[in-house]
Amino acid sequence: GQKVMPPPFNDRCIAVAGRCGHACEPPGGRTLQHCLPNGYINISSLVGDIPIQYNRVTPVFMFVYVLLFGFAVKIIMLCP
Q1: Considering only CA atoms, which of 15, 13, 36, 17 is closest in space to residue 26?
Q2: Cα-trace Rg, the chain
Q3: Structural element, H or E, at residue 18
Q4: What does the pLDDT look like over 61-77, one tens digit per residue?
Q5: Residue pLDDT, tens place only, 3-42
């Protein structure tokens, strides 16, 4: 594994369960961008609408057709 630097560990904080990294910093330290005063992350920063993406586009159909054509050629070459 990798060697871990000794304390202080305030450079290795992560958001867990929507909480900000206040536990790793002294009180009254710098404020984090999306944190509320109670120590939670604003839920609108964590969750949002995800656009639906479909595979029903021409490049996907072309790729599938090329694969099917390749398999058909292989079967024709193997079966005399």
Answers
A1: 13
A2: 26
A3: none
A4: 999 999 999 999 999 99
A5: 766 665 555 555 556 667 645 555 566 666 777 777 777 7
- Pick from 33, 1, 5, 7: which is nearest to 20 by CA? 33
DSSP state string for 42-74: PHHHH--------S-SHHHHHHHHHHHHHHHHH
Q: Using an 8 Å Cβ cutoff, are 9 and 21 in contact? A: no
SS3 content of the chain, % helix, strand, coil (to 5): 35, 5, 60
**How high does pLDDT run on average in the chain?**
76
